[in-house]
Amino acid sequence: MIKFDGIAAFVATAEAGSISAASRRLGLAKSVVSERLAELERILGTKLIQRTTRKLSLTENGQTFLPRAQRILREADEAAAELAARSGKLAGPLRLSAPVSFGILHLAPALTKFIQEHPQIEVSVELDDRFVDAAAGGFDAVLRHGAIGDSRLIARRLATSRRLLVASPAYLEREGHPASIDELQHHCGILYSMREGDWRFSTEHGWQVVRPKAALRANNGLVMREAAMAGLGITLLPTFFIHEAVKSGVLVPIDVGARAEGAELFITYPRDHGASAKIRALADSLQRSFGNPPYWDRLAS
């Protein structure tokens, strides 16, 4: 008979990429994880993992078995969570991924409230600005900015954010205040490097894209904010990055007569197992923490 702990050891090893990393995730000795993997392979009568001195990889049978094994673990965890929810308590692991800057600025305090509300939920969060595949990355849920174009995922909107053009008072005194979209073309921009045509404005003729000369390209909003505060140029950022700097006057909003495209925050999870009670509770808690409209938009006004 297949043992549940063997399936857990296999999934953790496949997702983490090594037995050592899996042992840390599971809180077990490396030898215990290896023994459970060996026992699972013996019961199934096939090799699931190809081990060499330099790397670990899944065999063809391991690749076939992995999504089913992940589903078994999810369904068992969700079943336990549903039973706990019936008794008024949510419990068990909840593994999340979120963008680095948003995680530091806003998710961390909101998660603290959630954990205080549900102390038996074991939250694990990994911050990463790269695209994280919620359907295949072993996460229960992923927080993402922007539209979700993946049919394998379900997305629930948590909050919105205005995006403002801002610059330091020193930059604007030196280079002048652009008064129109066309004048932006002649200024230095601090641009987000992961998306082309990021400066989009709604006009009476539709969306207009501005591509100013780049003083800096970065894939992190905090880096962009710091560069703008240092006077390197104009940047366009969601208010959840700049609300305090705008309120204090360190950054000054720029009105060019058109509204910039907004930003949205979603929580996403794989379609094949839906939203567990824990994910629903997390989403509800985060929405309460952020508010509607969110506090960063209110403070930036």
Automatic annotation (TrEMBL):
Transmembrane domains' residue ranges: none
InterPro entries: LysR-type_TF_proteobact-type, LysR_HTH_N, LysR_subst-bd, WH-like_DNA-bd_sf, WH_DNA-bd_sf
PROSITE patterns: HTH_LYSR
Single biological process term from Gene Ontology: DNA-templated transcription
GO molecular function: DNA-binding transcription factor activity; sequence-specific DNA binding
Key words of the record: DNA-binding, Plasmid, Transcription, Transcription regulation
Top-level taxon: Bacteria
Domain (HTH lysR-type) ranges: 2-59
Family: Belongs to the LysR transcriptional regulatory family.
Record-given protein name: LysR family transcriptional regulator
Species whose genome carries this gene: Sinorhizobium fredii (strain NBRC 101917 / NGR234)
